[in-house]
C-alpha cells in the first residue's frame, strides 16, 4: 500500500532536516508533487494532506484532471515538453511552466495568457550538460533568452529548471546541479532576487543532491505516489 500522506510528510521532514544542516541562509524550498500518470484520487489524497503544488507533463491528461478536481487552491505546474500548437491550453490552465527553452514558445505563452489570469510564472529549462539529445537552452544562450523572456508582458520570469539524465552517477548529477547554481546565481545578480527566485531541480532519485546545491523547487513524483500507472 502506498501511503501518500506519509510519503509527503516524510519528504517534507527530510527537506527541513537538510535545510537545517545547511551552512547558508535558509531558503524556502517548495515541493511540487509530480502527478503525471496518477489518478485524480491520488492527487486528492495529496491535497488532503496539505500539498498545494502539482506538476503535470501531458497536456490533455492534465487538463482533464485539473477540470475534474476544480480546486482553486491548487497550483498547477506544466513540466512536460511544449509543442507550439499546445501553448494556448498551457497558458489557460497552469500557473507555472518550467520547460520554456525558446523565445518563440515564450512569446506564444505570453500572447495567449488570458487577461483574467495573473501573469504566468516561467522557468527556463537549461540543458546544463549541453547534451545534443536533450531539451533545454544551452547554458551559453541562457542569459540572452532570459533577457528576452523578461520583456514579455504576460510572463513572469522566475528562474531556471533542469532535468538530470537517468544514467548519471551521483557525482555527475552533483556537478550538473552545481553548474546550474552558478548560472542561476549569476543571472540572479543581474535580474534581481525578488523576481528571479526559483531554481527548479531534483527528482525522486536525486533531490537531496539538488537541495544541497541550492534548489528552491523540487519536482518529486514516484517517491510520493509510487510507480506511475
Ligand atoms: C516525471 C518528472 C519528474 C518526477 O520524476 P520522479 O522520478 O517520479 O520523481 C520531475 N520532473 C520532470 C520534468 C518529470 O518529467
Overview of the structural elements:
The chain is an alpha/beta fold. The protein has helices at residues 4-21, 40-48, 59-69, 87-93, 103-112, 139-150, 170-191, 207-212, 222-225, and strands at residues 30-34, 53-56, 75-78, 96-100, 120-125, 155-161, 198-200, 217-220. Helix 4 (87-93) crosses helix 5. The chain is globular and about 45 Å long. The mean pLDDT is 95.
Strand portion: 15-25%
Number of helices: 9
General shape: globular
Strand order of the largest sheet: 7-6-5-4-3-2-1-8
Main sheet specs: 8 strands, parallel
Roughly how much helix do the residues carry, as a percent range?
40-55%
Order of helices and strands: HEHEHEHEHEHEHEHEH
What distance separates the N and C termini?
A: 14 Å
Total strand count, please?
Answer: 8
Average of pLDDT: 95
Question: Low-confidence segments, ≥5 residues, pLDDT <50?
Answer: none
Task: Give the class from helix and strand content and strand pairing.
Answer: alpha/beta
Instruction: List each distinct ligand once.
Output: pyridoxal-5'-phosphate
- Assembly state (oligomeric): single chain
Query: If you compute it from the alpha carbons, what radius of gyration comes out, rounded to the nearest whole angstrom?
Result: 17 Å
Topology diagram in text:
Layout: H1 4-21, E1 30-34, H2 40-48, E2 53-56, H3 59-69, E3 75-78, H4 87-93, E4 96-100, H5 103-112, E5 120-125, H6 139-150, E6 155-161, H7 170-191, E7 198-200, H8 207-212, E8 217-220, H9 222-225
Parallel strand pairs: 1-2, 1-8, 2-3, 3-4, 4-5, 5-6, 6-7
Helix pairs in contact: 4-5
Residues 34, 36, 57, 79, 163, 203-205, 219-223 line the site of pyridoxal-5'-phosphate (PLP).
Amino acid at each position: 500500500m502506498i501511503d501518500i500522506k506519509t510519503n509527503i510528510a516524510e519528504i517534507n521532514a527530510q527537506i527541513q532536516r537538510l535545510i537545517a544542516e545547511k551552512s547558508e541562509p535558509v531558503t524556502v524550498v517548495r515541493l511540487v508533487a509530480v502527478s503525471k500518470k496518477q489518478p485524480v484520487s491520488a492527487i486528492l489524497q495529496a491535497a488532503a494532506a496539505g500539498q498545494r503544488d502539482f506538476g503535470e507533463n501531458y497536456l490533455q491528461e492534465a487538463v482533464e484532471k485539473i477540470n475534474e478536481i476544480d480546486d482553486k487552491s491548487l497550483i498547477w505546474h506544466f513540466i512536460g515538453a511544449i509543442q507550439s500548437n499546445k501553448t494556448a491550453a498551457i497558458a489557460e490552465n497552469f500557473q507555472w511552466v518550467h520547460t520554456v527553452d525558446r523565445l518563440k514558445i515564450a512569446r506564444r505563452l505570453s500572447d495567449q495568457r488570458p487577461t483574467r489570469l495573473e501573469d504566468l510564472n516561467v522557468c527556463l529549462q537549461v540543458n546544463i550538460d549541453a547534451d545534443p539529445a536533450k531539451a533545454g537552452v544551452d547554458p551559453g544562450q541562457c542569459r540572452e533568452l532570459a533577457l528576452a523572456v523578461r520583456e514579455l508582458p504576460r510572463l513572469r520570469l522566475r528562474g531556471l529548471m533542469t532535468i538530470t539524465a537517468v544514467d548519471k552517477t551521483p557525482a555527475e548529477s552533483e556537478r550538473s546541479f552545481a553548474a546550474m547554481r552558478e548560472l542561476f546565481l549569476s543571472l540572479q545578480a543581474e535580474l534581481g532576487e525578488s523576481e528571479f527566485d526559483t531554481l527548479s531541480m531534483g527528482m525522486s532519485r536525486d533531490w537531496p543532491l539538488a537541495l544541497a546545491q541550492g534548489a528552491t523547487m523540487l519536482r518529486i513524483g514516484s517517491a510520493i505516489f509510487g510507480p506511475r500507472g
